[in-house]
């Protein structure tokens, strides 16, 4: 339940920020949306089993599902890389568009 | 599997391209060496893809379990006929575009205003990474790996689209980036839901487990995946980003984007709708979307005065044909859709390259500033005329054959909606012809407008690759028989699902 609420809050704020416009809001918005998706992946693995997933040391019934963790790690790295790119792009886009003109002219 | 073990080749299209990209980065300072590296790499990728097509056509889907992990735990790579065909076509056009770009770069003393930073050093590695990403989406048998493939190609496409960082490109880039990232978030969330519902992201296992889910849950997953892919494929109503972002990029970049990136979305739709969600729950919705994509796209195209924008709209419009085939969902429908994808990748890429030549020669792509090209540049006229007629679907070109296949598939289903779609596709074809002939008569036949500048010089290094791709496009017409043979077999396998599932999970593993 906590996870579901967290995902809802992150998605809501993320979408609001992205739609609100402005370079910084856009970037933060996407970071939040990325977190929302990552939390969903974690939730997909189930949160009741939390022990380390080490065969022979931990009871398999108690071990956490390692696959979503691998997904999330991958997704975090990708989001990080794209955030860096956005940090380059968004301020330039804002500059190109001029103040008060966001989203830039010509975008849908 | 007798004789040669084809499956060892499966990871190579991705591995070679990534390795080539690495080497190309290392030799950044030495342009000639870098060119050799990227051409050799892509030629190897093409050769491997051809071998894979032969192998997959002979012995069924080829699989590799990455790292030796069993299919249920690790990532599997699967090359069936569909994937192999897509690999061959994409490697061909990427190689053509790369040669064209080299020709452009070799001749460029950089009159092109936007490329004044001359970002040539990063162009080659980025193209190779893009190629790796595209190949990865084709060969993967794992939903999460598909997402990774998408991100690889998206990240490199972001870089290519904003090459040089001039204001128009940044403006175009930001809307493309925002839309793509939103689509990725939707796709990633869909993967989370799929995993939560089934406990796997292996597509063959998913095919089995999704069947057991309640209809409502299945529908949610199907719709979310479809939305994610539809944005990439530029299907109505989520196509608005495409005509805004593509035309600003340099010609080779637009060409490779137009040819490949949307088709990756189409491929994903074809794959998931047949393998994961058979039964056509959403067929009707897809048919409507296909109709709207065709009509809205082509109406947009007719209204354009700039050739690049016009072509971007026809690109959107013709995506509708492929979705039409996918939505019909019979062997004939899927087969024609796959054929159409192969045809359209080649033709659309070629056209954008030729437009690049026109831009170089006439100094503009706006119809109001071009004229009289047929007289002064007859070769250019032929190079434009052939693929343009092919795109419009004039017999006997492959575009015509693909459309006839789709229309037949629609007529076999014989519902009022498919007849409506047939009417829509004929209308779209006619309007495409109209849009193309407008370009033809204004840019090639009419007397040049007074403000038209002196014709520029078109280097042979650019003309030859474009001509080569025109020839490839024409060869699809002559090879249509065997090609339809392959796509028929591919479609039958896709609809039967068993060949794919058995190849990934042999001996009915749990």
Order of helices and strands of chain A: HHH
- SS-based class of chain A: mainly alpha
Q: How many domain regions of chain A?
A: 1
- Approximate shape of chain B: globular
Helix content of chain A: 55-70%
Number of strands of chain B: 2
The amount of helix of chain B comes to over 70%
**Terminal-residue CA separation of chain A:** 36 Å
> Average pLDDT across residues of chain A?
83
Radius of gyration of chain A (CA) equals 18 Å
Largest interface, C-beta closer than 8 angstroms, per-chain residues:
A-B, 34 and 35 residues
Largest sheet of chain A: none
**What is the beta-strand fraction of chain B?**
under 5%
If helices are DSSP runs of H or I spanning 4 or more residues, what is the number of helices of chain A? 3
Report the structural category of chain B.
mainly alpha
**SS field, number of helical segments of chain B:** 20
- Contiguous low-pLDDT stretches of chain A (5 residues minimum) are 104-108
User: Could you name the ranges of chain B where pLDDT drops below 50 across 5 or more consecutive residues?
Assistant: 109-118
Write down how many β-strands of chain A occur, each being a DSSP E stretch of 2 or more residues: 0
Looking at the chains present, what oligomeric state does this protein adopt? heterodimer
Task: Give the overall pLDDT of chain B as a whole number.
Answer: 86
Q: What does this entry show, briefly?
A:
Chain A is mostly helical. Chain A contains three helices and no strands. Chain A has helices spanning 2-20, 23-44, 66-97.
Question: What does the model show?
Answer:
- The complex is a heterodimer of chains A (108) and B (510).
- Chain A has 108 residues and is mainly α.
- Chain A has three helices and no strands.
- Chain A has one domain.
- Chain A is elongated and about 60 Å long.
- The radius of gyration of chain B is 22 Å and the shape is globular.
- Chain B has a domain of 220 residues.
- Chain B has 20 helices and two strands.
- In chain B, α7 crosses α20 and α13 packs across α19.
- The longest helix of chain B is centred in the middle third of the chain and has 32 residues.
- At the A-B interface, α2 and α3 of A face α5 and α6 of B.
